[in-house]
Amino acid sequence: MHIRSLRTPRLILRILKRCEVGKIFLTNLTRRAGLAFGRSFFYSLLLLVVCLAWAQDLRADTISGTIKDPSGAVVVGSRIEITGGNLTQAIVLTSDESGKFTVPDLSAGKYTVRVAKEGFEELVTSVDLHGTADLPLKLTIAEQQTSIHVTDKSLAFANSDAFYKQLRGIGLGSTFRCDNFSMPVDVGTFQLKSGTITFLAPVNGYVTGAVFVGQGHFVLKPVGRLDTREMLRRSGSEIAEEDFTEAVFRFSGGVYQQFSGVTVNKTDSPAEAATAFEHWKNRVRHRHEIPESFTQAVLEGETIDNVDADVLSAVYNPKHPPFFNAYMTGSPHKDFRFFVRMRTGALPNSIRRRKWRWSTGAAEEWMTESGIPSIASTS
C-alpha cells in the first residue's frame, strides 16, 4: 500500500484525531504506555491500518469534464490527453456518448489537459488539482482554409473588361460635409445628422456609390395594414429603426441625384471613409465555403444580390431598372441592410421589391403600387 499523501507523523496524527477509529487507537495507546502490548493494542493497530486505507481513498483526486461545441452540443469521441503531476506517461482517453470523461486516482499537483477533435481547434488548459476538478471544455470550430494557385496560362481567361476592372478596384472621389440631411428611399428614410459623405469615383461617367461616416439614423415604416402586421410579427415592432456610424450606399446611376442636397460643402476625405469601404468589400465580396451561422448563410447565400453585377449592368445599360443598396453599421445591429429593387420580366413593372436584412435574421417584402396584396416571406 502506498500512502502518498501521508508521509509525516504530524499528518498521521491529524487524521487519527479526525476519525473515531483513530481516537480509539490514541486512547488505548495512552492508557497502555509503558506496558506490554497485548491483544487490545493488536486490535487498535489493525483499526489504524483500516483508518489509513480509508484516508488514502479519500485523498484520491479526480479530473473530469464535458466536451461541447460552440452551440452547446456535446462532442462525442474527443481525444483527451492528460499530463503532469507525478504521471510518468500521458493518460489518453476519449469522451463518451454524453461528451464526458473521468480520470480518477490522481495525486495533487498541476496537470495539462489537451482536447482534440477533427474539425475543431485543439484546446489546451491547465489544472492545479486539489481534490476534484470538473472542467467545462468548449471547442471552437477550426478555420476552413482553401488555397488556389493560378498559373500564368489562366491569365488569358481573366476578365479584361475595362468597366469591370474599374468597379473591382474602385476608389474614393469627392467628399462633402453633411449635416441634418434627410433622404427618403421607398419606405425607408435616412437621416444623416452629422458627418461626411464620400462618393465613389465615377465609372463610365456614373457615380455608383457613397460612404457616410458620422451620426445617422434609419427608419423603415411599412405601408399598409398587412405589411405592418408582418413587420410586427417578424421584428416585434411596427417599424424598424437603426442608429449607424457608418453606411455604404451602392446604386444605379440615376439614384445619385437624390444626394444633390449634400454636394455643397466640399471637404477632405477622412481616413474612416476608406476604412469603412474596405470593411464593406470584405463583408460583401468574401464568402465562407462553410457558413459558421444561419445569418452568415443567409447573407452569403446564392439568393443574395450580387451588387457588382448589378452596378456593371447599370453602367452598360442606362435603362437598367434602378436599384438602391444600403449597408449600415451601428446599433442595435452590427450589420443592417436595406435593398430596393424594381423587378421586370414575368412580373409587372409596377411591382417593386423591398428587402431589409439585419444581423439576427432576414425578411423580404413584396408590394405593389396598384393595390395588389403584399406577400412576406423569410429568405
Number of discrete domains: 3
- The average pLDDT score comes to 76
Order of helices and strands: HHHEEEEEEEHEEEHEEHHHEEEEE
Strand order of the largest sheet: 12-8-9-10-11-13-14-15-16-17
Which regions are unreliable across 5 or more consecutive residues at pLDDT < 50? Answer: 1-8, 34-38, 345-379
The helicity comes to: 10-25%
Structural class: alpha+beta
DSSP strand tally: 17
Individual helix count: 8
> How much strand content do the residues show?
35-45%
Shape: elongated
Distance between the termini: 68 Å
Radius of gyration of CA atoms, rounded to a whole number = 35 Å
Largest sheet, in brief, is: 10 strands, antiparallel
Question: What would you note in describing this structure?
Answer:
The strands form three sheets. The chain has a ten-stranded antiparallel β-sheet with strand order 12-8-9-10-11-13-14-15-16-17. A hairpin with a 4-residue loop joins β13 (323-331) and β14. The chain folds into three domains: 9-58, no CATH class; 61-138, Immunoglobulin-like (Sandwich); 165-377, no CATH class. The protein contains eight helices and 17 strands. It is an alpha+beta fold and 379 residues long. The protein has helices at residues 9-18, 20-31, 39-58, 162-168, 225-235, 271-285, 294-299, 307-316, and strands at 61-68, 79-84, 91-94, 100-106, 109-116, 123-129, 132-138, 172-185, 188-200, 209-220, 240-251, 266-267, 323-331, 336-342, 351-358, 361-368, 375-377.
